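Task card 7
Instruction: Convert sequence to structure tokens.
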Amino acid sequence: MIRASSFTRWGPFLFWVLFGVGDLGVSRRKAAGVVAVVFTVLAGAQQVLLVAGFGGWLPGWQPWPYLLVAAPAWLISRPLWGERIPRPWRRAVEALRRVPSWAYAVGVLALAAGVWAGLQDFEPYLGHEEAVYANKARSWADGTPDAGWGVYRPVGLPALGALALWLYGDGGAGGGAGGSVGGGVGALRAVGLVLVLGTLTVTYLVAAAWTSRRRAVVVVLVLLSGLGFLRRVPEYLNDIGATGLVLVVVFLLVRAQVVAGAMPGPTRLASSTVPVAREIGAAAQGRPCLVVTGYEPEFGWYSGCDAVTYAQYREMRLRVPEGTLVSLVVFERGRLQPDAAGLERLARLARVDSGRDSDVRTIGTDGPVGTAMVVTMR
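Output:
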């Protein structure tokens, strides 16, 4: 196997072979093809070693990410091998493409259920962490002690477990006795299966939204084939379920970023704040100045003035140094700012405090928060 020192020694050469600048000639494509084959074989070999119990040959019993090198190498060498695919293979590929993508997705979920069932015999007893959540679930089901439970632990998994035990009709007492997966243990492990299938389904839906439905099937299959994922499949733990929930959150955040007006990016917001801040700074002409706004960091930087929020200004308005040019800024669709009546009251108090007149001007912007109204104490 290639060790870390070998990986470091050959890394620059492999990078040049795969991603070297210039035209990718036939020789470089052939070299990429060799790299693709070698690293694919190594990726498969180390999986065989782990399954066969020889994982100690790998550093830290962890597989190297050879496929991260093999995947781009296959793509680079595709013009060479893509035209040499035998006709029977091409027909088989065409036949596979006629199968609807949802059928493949259902097949992967069925495979996951089969893997879960097959691994139960290798994990007949609840492990340490499993037992903590199982005790809490059983305590809610029949009032027994929740040994090992801590308030820092998430309650979602034991809540589902308690529901499973209630549906099973046995509080879980004696479940799994004699080493068999049955009784309460079987009901709790079924919760784990539901979480596995739910996470795989979420992964498919998110990957389909970002790529295509057929590629999403490949993504789910790759996830299912990972040893780290497989290690948790038969267990009553929240690792896999939490992963699915995190993926949902990431998807929603990305979706919110790409929807127009849902979450303006910082560069778009700058189209509103920067021109107003610069105009206020220029109007100060070197005098001490203070800007009151919901966007105090941007205004402080681009105007050169001190900047505070409206809440801060209400507390400090009687302590503003004499001679300071105070500007109150509100936008059409701004944040953390008073309405028209509140702004008028605050401006009136500022005039009384400073003994100076004020002027009002509007500054148009093309940013997402619209036109600014600026009330300045002269």
